[in-house]
Amino acid sequence: MALWRFGGGWSEETMRRYLSALEDRPVNFDTPVEQMIAAHGWTVDGSEDEIATEPEGPPVADGPYERAKQAIINYDFSDPSIVVGHYDPDSPVIGRNMLLELKVLGFRFLCGVRVKEMRDDLEQGTSYFGFRYDTLEGHVERGYEWFLLTKDHATGGIHFKIEAHWRMGTFPNLWSKAGFTLIGEHYRSVWRRRAPDRLRRIARQPSATPIAAPGRLAHRGSDEPSRSN
């Protein structure tokens, strides 16, 4: 089940140990992804927003699309007041394990996900980039989520789409499950609304902040330079 605590977060050493433990952890669902639809009892939600425009044609070098693409790889679109993504920045995107630190009313929950699919191609005049991660055993949700960036070559419009297919997962106790049922959707909605706003800001100019110090884990979006044990 998800690890949790109230107040401060976890140290680099502890986070690295928890992240390593995800290597052999399976996903927490056995339904084929094509069957994870509303008709079969799965919640399907998300959002799609325009985040930028650039000249018509393929993505511009160091333009808004390319900057947003890197931000998606880094998980920088996530609002750190709600979810911080912890991972090894040297790991390939496909197969990357991540610890998502969910923050709710002072409580923090660590849940594992794994990137299972990535898209980086051109189809019918539209560039696509994004990835899908699946929830791992112990996550408070079951399912998968897509984060997809597109550029329409005919118009120059750049969009960011979030699409989630999920059910309730495993909770560490009854009160956390009850709390998720009561306020979980509010936090999900706020997080989805802020994600494209963060990408809009990132797309305007390149980031001067390194993804992580050499040999350290990435704590993307984190505004907490010092963490607890």
What's the CATH topology label? Alpha-D-Glucose-1,6-Bisphosphate, Chain A, domain 4
Distance separating the two termini: 19 Å
DSSP helix count?
Answer: 3
Order of helices and strands: EHEHEEEEEEHE
| CATH 2nd-level architecture | 2-Layer Sandwich
Number of domains: 1
Strand tally, please? 9
How much is the average pLDDT? 91
Structural class: alpha+beta
Beta-strand content estimate: 35-45%
Biggest sheet layout: 9 strands, antiparallel
**Any idea what the CATH superfamily is called?**
START domain
Q: Low-confidence segments, ≥5 residues, pLDDT <50?
A: 222-229
Percentage of helical residues? 10-25%
Our Rg estimate from Cα atoms comes to: 18 Å
Instruction: Name the overall outline.
Output: globular
Q: In CATH, what is the class?
A: Alpha Beta
Layout of helices and strands, plus pairs?
Elements: E1 3-6, H1 12-20, E2 43-53, H2 64-74, E3 83-87, E4 97-104, E5 107-123, E6 126-135, E7 141-152, E8 157-168, H3 174-204, E9 218-220
Antiparallel strand pairs: 1-5, 2-8, 3-4, 3-9, 4-5, 5-6, 6-7, 7-8
Helix pairs in contact: 2-3
Question: What would your notes on this structure say?
Answer:
With 229 residues, the protein is an alpha+beta fold. It has a single domain, classed as Alpha-D-Glucose-1,6-Bisphosphate, Chain A, domain 4 (2-Layer Sandwich). Helix content is 22%, strand content 36%. It is built from three helices and nine strands. Strands 1, 2, 3, 4, 5, 6, 7, 8 and 9 form a nine-stranded antiparallel β-sheet that branches. Helix 2 runs antiparallel to helix 3. The two termini are 19 Å apart.
